[in-house]
Design goal:
30% of the residues lie in helices and 32% in strands. With 335 residues, the protein is of the alpha/beta class. The protein has two domains: 134 residues, Rossmann fold; 172 residues, Dihydrodipicolinate Reductase, domain 2, CATH 3.30.360.
């Protein structure tokens, strides 16, 4: 049976919007019918599709779903309009700039019964996808420590949020997704070395609801791009490098005379085989599955809300200098 072609629209033709446009053009069963950007399309990303300056004009094209790739500060305004109009939406990360806006967006889509998701593309990096699969299979046994490192020079184009909302939310989402456990508390410190309106680096120590300790470092003041996540467990550790798309396993063993003594050596390191894939194409395919009511590993709005909640707790901890508990009582609505 032939699968009907979906009609897609894109809001925002900046850096990520152009990547989304490229991706849609590569999908056999999705057709880009229009875009919205007040600045037009100077890079030609829409490839001849009409580019509008008003959301209603785009919706009149008859879209099956919209990719919301505009600046984070206006996600709530445009997302609420799309939810009211009944348009399924793939919202670029982060979901919103603050918890209230994230709650309102999540509630609006759930109340309207409209499918929506958050574009945490790192879930679809082949190294992370395989890492998640290996953890689900119990390769490492019990997990007791997770460490992430995500650094680069400042991208320049990001002006409405700092490194916590833009970068750290990737690692917050990945940590929660691969373990199946939420953050319970976080202690964080930030710096602002570049003089921009928002923070440009974060170092944080956190704990998950199951007791797992996590460490996170994100920075926009590093000349070296790094995107690493290392998971340690009873049987060794796995490190996913999403820059090179490699997954490395270092095996460990317990001392038979002392089962609580853990040892590991680099002689046990092995690079695991991965299936190459374009993460953004995989993300769009996963969203398509969500639209069709099928199981999908794309981040839900609730996951996007939780990432914003933890990011805001990290910023609060950096201001107070104290460990901050993640209070989900006001956000724990069952929609």
């Amino acid at each position: 049976m032939t699968t009907p072609t979906l009609r897609a629209g894109i809001v925002g033709l900046g850096h990520m919007g152009r990547h989304h446009a490229r991706t849609v053009h590569h999908l056999d069963d999705v057709h880009l019918v229009g875009a919205l950007d007040p600045a037009g399309d100077p890079h030609g990303a829409a490839r001849g599709c009409p580019v509008f300056t008003d959301l209603e004009q785009l919706l009149h094209r008859g879209v099956d779903y919209v990719v919301l790739a505009c600046p984070t500060a206006i996600h709530a305004e445009l997302g609420l309009q799309l939810a009211t109009a009944g348009i399924p939406t793939l919202i670029e990360k982060p979901l919103a700039t603050n918890v209230d806006a994230a709650i309102h967006l999540t509630h609006a889509y759930h109340a309207a019964g409209v499918p929506a998701a958050v574009g945490y593309i790192e879930r679809f990096n082949p190294a992370v996808t395989q890492l998640h699969r290996k953890l689900q299979d119990g390769l490492l046994g019990d997990i007791f420590d997770i460490s992430t490192r995500r650094t680069s020079a400042h991208p320049g184009r990001i002006t409405d949020v700092g490194v916590v909302h833009d970068l750290a939310t990737h690692d917050i989402d990945l940590t929660t997704w691969i373990t199946g456990h939420q953050f319970s508390s976080i202690t964080a410190r930030i710096t602002n070395r570049t003089g921009r309106p928002h923070e440009d680096s974060l170092t944080a120590l956190a704990q998950l609801t199951n007791g797992t300790i996590t460490q996170h470092h994100v920075s926009w003041i590093s000349p070296t791009p790094q995107r690493l996540i290392t998971v340690s467990g009873d049987n060794g550790c796995l490190t996913a490098d999403t820059v090179t798309s490699k997954l490395t396993l270092v095996t460990g063993c317990a001392d038979p005379n002392n089962p609580h003594q853990y040892t590991a050596g680099l002689d046990g390191a092995a690079q695991l085989d991965l299936v190459p894939a374009d993460p953004l194409i995989s993300e769009h395919r996963a969203f398509r599955e969500r639209l069709r009511g099928r199981p999908s590993m794309i981040a839900s709005l609730q996951s996007g809300l939780d990432a914003v909640l933890v990011a805001c707790a990290a910023l609060r901890s950096s201001r107070t200098g104290a460990t901050t508990a993640i209070d989900r009582r006001f956000a724990a609505r069952q929609w």
